[in-house]
Write a structure and sequence with these properties.
This protein is α/β, with parallel strands linked by helices. It has 2 domains: about 110 residues, Aldehyde Oxidoreductase, domain 3, CATH 3.90.1170.20; about 150 residues, Alpha-Beta Barrel (TIM Barrel). The chain contains 11 helices and 12 strands.
C-alpha cells in the first residue's frame, strides 16, 4: 500500500524548503553507492512499498525488494537494496525508515497478539485509535500482522457507545434511533452489563461490544447470545489474559494498542561498496 501524497508531505517536512546541508557539504554529488535496509531484530515487515516509493520520489530507480509485506524476518535480514546517487539515498533515508519502522512495529505487535490467542476462533481487531492521516496505512499494517480491521471511518457503520446512549436516553432508545435513520447500516452497540445485553438482544444488533467485562462475564454473554449476534470484548485485555478472553467464545478482541502503542521496529540503512 502506498500513499504518495503523504510521502511528498513527509519529504517536504524534512527539508522545510531548503536543502540537506550536511550531505551537500560532505558528498560531492557525483558519488554512487549501494545501501541495504537491514532488520535489527526479528518480527513482521510492513511498509516495504511505502519505503520503496520514498526512494522513487527522490529519483532513485535501481531498487531490489527482498521481502514482501507480511513476511517474518530475523535479525540481519536484508529487506531492500537501493543503488544510486548518494545524496538522494541520504535524503530519503529517514523518511523511508520512519514509515517502514512504524508500520513494521504495528505488524509485529499485531502478530504477537494473534499468536497469543492461537487455537481459538477469536480474531484480533483494531480500533480508530490511529495516527491522524495514517489510518489506512496503520490498518493495512494490522492486516499484515494477521489482525482484522474494524470500521475505517465513522460513516462505515454505527458504533453506539456510552455517550450516545446517554444522549439518546438509554440503550434501546439509542439503537432504535440509529436503525430508523440508517436502516441498512451495520450497527454495533456497547454494553456495560449483562442486563443491557439482554435488553438489546431483541432489537437484533449486528454486533455487541462488551465493555470492560471479565472473561467470566464474556463467557456468560456468549451463553446468553447463543449465536444470535457477534460479540466483541474491549477493555482490560492484555497479552497475558488475551487467551482467557478468546476461549470464552467471543468473536473479536478490540485492541487499541495495535496502533496507538506499537513500538517502532528497528531497521537500519547501511551503505556499502558495490
Amino acid at each position: 500500500m502506498i500513499d504518495r501524497d503523504l510521502i511528498k508531505r513527509a519529504l517536504a517536512e524534512d527539508l522545510q524548503g531548503g536543502e540537506d546541508i550536511t550531505s551537500v557539504a560532505t558528498v560531492s554529488g557525483d558519488e554512487k553507492v549501494v545501501a541495504d535496509f537491514i532488520s535489527r531484530k526479528s518480527g513482521v515487515v510492513a511498509g516495504i512499498e511505502m519505503a520503496r516509493a520514498v526512494l522513487e520520489e527522490v529519483g532513485l530507480t535501481d531498487i531490489v525488494v527482498h521481502v514482501q509485506d507480511g513476511s517474518s524476518v530475523s535479525t540481519g535480514d536484508v529487506l531492500m537494496t537501493v543503488r544510486g546517487d548518494t545524496r538522494a539515498i541520504l535524503l530519503a533515508e529517514r523518511t523511508a525508515l520512519n514509515f517502514l519502522g512504524h508500520l513494521s512495529g504495528i505488524a509485529t505487535l499485531t502478530r504477537t497478539w494473534v499468536d497469543a490467542i492461537a487455537g481459538t476462533q477469536c480474531e484480533v481487531r483494531d480500533t480508530r485509535k490511529t495516527t491522524p492521516g495514517m489510518r489506512l496505512l496503520e490498518k493495512y499494517a494490522v492486516r499484515m500482522g494477521g489482525g482484522t480491521n474494524h470500521r475505517m471511518s465513522l460513516s462505515d457503520a454505527a458504533l453506539i457507545k456510552d455517550n450516545h446512549i446517554a444522549a439518546a436516553g438509554g440503550v434501546a432508545e439509542a439503537f432504535s434511533k440509529v436503525r430508523a435513520k440508517f436502516p441498512t447500516s451495520e450497527i454495533e452497540i456497547e454494553v456495560d452489563t449483562l442486563d443491557q445485553l439482554r435488553e438489546i438482544l431483541p432489537l437484533k444488533p449486528d454486533l455487541v461490544l462488551l465493555d470492560n467485562m471479565s472473561p467470566a462475564q464474556c463467557a456468560e454473554a456468549v451463553s446468553i447470545v447463543a449465536g444470535a449476534t457477534k460479540l466483541e470484548a474491549s477493555g482490560g485485555i492484555s497479552l497475558e489474559n488475551a487467551k482467557a478472553y478468546a476461549v470464552t467464545g467471543v468473536n473479536y478482541l478490540a485492541i487499541g494498542a495495535l496502533t496507538h502503542s506499537a513500538p517502532v521496529f528497528d531497521i537500519g540503512l547501511d551503505l556499502r561498496a558495490e
